[in-house]
């Protein structure tokens, strides 16, 4: 693979690749499943964002393409199981288990829902499953919709802490104009930052056949991903072996650079964007442990102040009231108060369950 090894990869597959007028494009799905299986053997964790539910569902319900939201929502409901069945079949021949997540914009914007989706995805990857994500089109109202899977996949890359997002489409990247309309359009191999001038190259929102966003939503997705420390490749998935050739650098594509690393972007978000909802007071031993890079365990916490919920940002203070860290709580305030001073093996005894050993995990914490 060209460049540094990819630790966690999100691949977005557009409707035109996943479906044809007759149903799922099984040869394409098998090809992707084989490439994903090989990536996983090489140590890369892979998450798919697959479009295609609406296109498949329209066919099954005998409806035609139209802007009517209720028809699209009905089609998504009818098409989604068909889509997952096709993916399940493709991955079964590699002994890989698929797992469906249907997200709304709320799941990627609300901090608690974000953390839940994040930990579900982490648990699925750890268990060896292939998460396959789509938007929950069937019930999402206009305000709750991301609206296209390009941007959804960027938000998934952000919440999963991915280092690479691949947008597989029917075009091998960004051109200086829509190559379907302008024969003189030139390919753009590298983009350092998604500026308004770059977005302007994509023109309006028109895309190909069953697609939703055209090139514009792909660039918007790349911008979201870059801010989350994730690079983006936009390439064509129309030829067999496309994903492998794209990742190895053999295939033509557009690469949009990341702005920093996923971990840095996530910590900057915690440090700079979130206002603390409550605080934890910790003893001197815990303060020293945090400075050495440890997670905050309940055993070193002497007080939990405020009415915070799991996922809220907390200020961590030493006995003198000095703020020494900020981080996202893994427990609600009531739970945290019941856990004060608890050792790891006492958590389940006190609560009847455990959300993990840390009140604030070091990955979710920034020292001041
Ligand atoms: N500047 C551009 N460079 C490349 N493609 C463009 C550009 N402007 C518009 N497009 C169109 O965007 C299409 C890809 O978007 P879309 O059909 O939504 O794909 P998908 O279904 O994969 O999301 C291309 O087929 C192309 O016609
Ligand atoms: N969620 C929709 C896909 C929306 C979408 O962005 O489609 P596309 O532009 O083909 O990736 C579906 O499953 O049909």
Automatic annotation (TrEMBL):
It catalyses: L-glutamate + ATP = L-glutamyl 5-phosphate + ADP. SUPFAM superfamilies: Carbamate kinase-like, PUA domain-like. It is found in: Cytoplasm. Its EC number is 2.7.2.11. ATP binds at residues 12, 169-170, 212-218. Residues 278-360 form the PUA domain. Substrate binds at residues 51, 137, 149. PROSITE patterns: GLUTAMATE_5_KINASE (PS00902), PUA (PS50890). The keyword ATP-binding applies. Keywords: Amino-acid biosynthesis, ATP-binding, Cytoplasm, Kinase, Nucleotide-binding, Proline biosynthesis, Transferase. InterPro entries: AceGlu_kinase-like_sf, Asp/Glu/Uridylate_kinase, G5K_ProB, Glu/AcGlu_kinase, Glu_5kinase, Glu_5kinase/COase_Synthase, Glutamate_5-kinase_CS, PUA. Pathway: Amino-acid biosynthesis; L-proline biosynthesis; L-glutamate 5-semialdehyde from L-glutamate: step 1/2. Pfam families: AA_kinase (PF00696), PUA (PF01472). HAMAP family: ProB (MF_00456). Catalyzes the transfer of a phosphate group to glutamate to form L-glutamate 5-phosphate. Belongs to the glutamate 5-kinase family. NCBIfam families: proB. This is Glutamate 5-kinase. It comes from Sphingomonas humi. The lineage of its organism: Bacteria, Pseudomonadati, Pseudomonadota, Alphaproteobacteria, Sphingomonadales.
């Amino acid at each position: 693979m060209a460049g540094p090894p990819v630790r966690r990869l999100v691949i977005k597959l557009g409707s035109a690749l996943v479906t044809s007028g007759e149903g799922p494009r099984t040869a394409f799905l098998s090809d992707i499943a084989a490439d994903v299986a090989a990536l996983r053997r090489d140590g890369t964790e892979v998450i798919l964002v697959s479009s295609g539910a609406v296109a498949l569902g329209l066919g099954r319900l005998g409806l035609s393409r139209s802007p009517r939201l209720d028809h699209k929502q009905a089609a998504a409901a009818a098409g989604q199981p068909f889509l997952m069945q096709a993916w399940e079949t493709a991955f079964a021949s590699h002994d890989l288990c698929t797992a469906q997540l249907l997200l709304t914009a709320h799941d990627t914007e609300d901090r608690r829902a974000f953390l839940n989706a994040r930990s579900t995805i982490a648990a699925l990857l750890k268990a060896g499953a292939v998460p396959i994500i789509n938007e929950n089109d069937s019930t999402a109202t206009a305000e709750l919709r991301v609206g296209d899977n390009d941007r959804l996949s960027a938000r998934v890359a952000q919440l999963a802490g991915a280092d690479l997002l691949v947008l597989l489409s029917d075009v091998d990247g960004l051109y200086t104009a829509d190559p379907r309309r302008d024969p003189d359009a030139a390919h753009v191999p590298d983009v350092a930052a998604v500026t308004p001038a770059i977005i302007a190259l994509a023109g309006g929102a028109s895309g190909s056949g069953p697609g939703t966003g055209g090139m514009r939503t792909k660039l918007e997705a790349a911008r979201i991903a870059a801010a989350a420390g994730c690079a983006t490749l936009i390439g064509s998935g129309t030829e067999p072996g496309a994903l492998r050739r794209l990742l190895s650098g053999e295939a033509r594509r557009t690469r949009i650079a990341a702005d920093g690393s996923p971990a840095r972007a996530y910590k900057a978000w915690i440090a700079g964007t979130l206002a603390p909802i409550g605080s934890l007071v910790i003893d001197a031993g815990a303060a020293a442990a945090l400075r050495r890079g440890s997670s905050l365990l309940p055993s070193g916490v002497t007080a939990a102040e405020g009415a915070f919920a799991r996922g809220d940002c907390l200020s961590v203070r030493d006995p003198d009231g000095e703020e020494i860290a900020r981080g996202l709580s893994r427990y609600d305030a009531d739970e945290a108060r019941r856990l004060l001073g608890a050792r790891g093996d006492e958590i389940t005894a006190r609560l009847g369950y455990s959300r993990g050993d840390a009140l604030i995990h070091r990955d979710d914490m920034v020292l001041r």
